[in-house]
Design brief:
By secondary structure, the chain is an all-beta fold. The protein has one domain: Beta Barrel (AttH-like fold). Strands 3, 6, 7, 8, 9, 10, 11, 12, 13, 14, 15, 16 and 17 form a 13-stranded antiparallel beta sheet that branches. Strand 8 and strand 9 form a beta hairpin. It is globular, with a radius of gyration of 19 Å. Keywords: Signal. Pfam families: AsqO_C (PF25581), DA_N (PF24137). This is AttH domain-containing protein. InterPro entries: AsqO/PenF-like_C, AttH-like_dom_sf, DA_N.
């Protein structure tokens, strides 16, 4: 999940962990995940290894667990977009979607702002690891992804057996990978909050999209992103956790917890939201960048890309400034403008 290709941030939730493993030899070779919940105790990986950064992290899929691979792209117009999610989740995992444990969900918005969502159930998910990266094939859907060992490039390949979903979606990374603590060096925490993991293989990318879904073609270049989230238990309300990542020109400026706040603004800006709170008009991001200054940014959506129970996703624009104090004690401010793809979960 992400806010933008210039500034990456998110609103997150709370959870408790069921079981934990931090061994780095848990996923050799190929992993096959049948489309069914197993009764065993779920394990949840919480530390980085020297390999397999993008590998499955929850073993096996339990009733309240989830483990997914998320790929997105948004065009320079802030309207056209594509999201492909390869999902595994328990039927009671709190997340929106069908009562399935393995499926692929494709969401796209066309140039006229029309949004479409396709959900394809599968018989199993297959994931293999190579260095830090992964390759995946979601069973009988014949939809897959291929990643290189150093996380510099991913391809999502759409080649449905019936020919109704075809095309290629390529991401070429332009920003370093990160976890919640910033570094991907071995031994770093992957917990965004208790029981919830976050691994961002491609925080920002040059994206090339050329796909055809049931006769509707979507073709553009723009900005892209790939991460994975996972967890093992249900969320609990009324706790706040903040984590962010900011990179510029291929270098991380700051990454980790407690330096960034994200708040809704404009219409429907009640915080924390309730079950009756409407869709926020936008969000405001404030981040302390240390010696680099202070970031202030506003996000506004152009189009609603997806809307489900307790969940929304939007494509739009982000504008912001980084203000810093110069050596002669004057304040210098630099403005940025970009496209954004962002989402919100509301479990209240």
């Amino acid at each position: 999940m992400r806010f933008s290709t210039i500034f990456s941030a998110a609103l997150y939730f709370a959870s408790t962990v069921v079981a934990d493993f931090s061994a780095c030899d848990n996923l050799p070779g190929i992993q096959i995940f049948p489309a069914g919940v197993r009764p065993e105790t779920v394990s949840n990986q919480t530390r980085t290894c020297s390999h397999s950064f993008d590998a499955p992290k929850v073993l096996p899929v339990g009733d309240t667990s989830y483990d997914w691979w998320y790929f997105d792209a948004v065009a320079d117009d802030g309207v056209q977009s594509l999201v492909v999610v390869f999902m595994q989740k328990g039927e009671n995992s709190d997340f929106p979607g069908p009562a399935l444990t393995a499926y692929v969900q494709i969401t796209r918005t066309l140039s006229n702002g029309t949004a479409f969502t396709e959900t394809l159930p599968v018989d199993q998910g297959i994931v293999s690891t190579s260095g830090l990266g992964t390759n995946g094939l979601w069973g009988n859907s014949n939809l897959s992804w291929v990643g290189v060992p150093d996380l510099s490039e991913y391809q999502v390949r759409l080649n449905a057996a019936d020919g109704t979903i075809t095309g290629l979606f390529t991401l070429k990374s332009i920003a370093p990978p990160h976890g919640p603590s910033g570094s991907v060096e071995p031994g770093q925490s992957l917990e965004l909050m208790p029981g919830v993991g976050w691994a961002v293989s491609i925080p920002d990318a040059v994206a090339t999209v050329d796909v055809n879904v049931r006769g509707r073609r979507l073709k553009f270049t723009g900005s892209g992103y790939h991460d994975k989230n996972w967890g093992s238990t249900l969320f609990t309300p009324n706790d706040e956790y903040a984590n962010g990542y900011i990179a510029l020109d291929g270098e991380i400026i700051r990454s980790g917890p407690d330096f960034m706040t994200v708040r809704p603004e404009g219409a429907n800006s009640e915080h924390p939201p309730t079950g009756e709170t409407g869709v926020p008009e936008g969000f405001h991001i404030t981040a302390d960048l240390g010696d680099a200054g202070v970031l202030e940014a506003s996000v506004r959506y152009t189009v609603a890309a997806a809307s489900f129970r307790s969940y929304g996703r939007w494509a739009g624009m982000i504008n912001g400034t980084i203000a810093s104090t110069t050596t002669n004690s004057t304040v210098a401010s630099k403005a940025y403008l970009g496209v954004t793809h962002y989402e919100m979960f509301n479990f209240f």
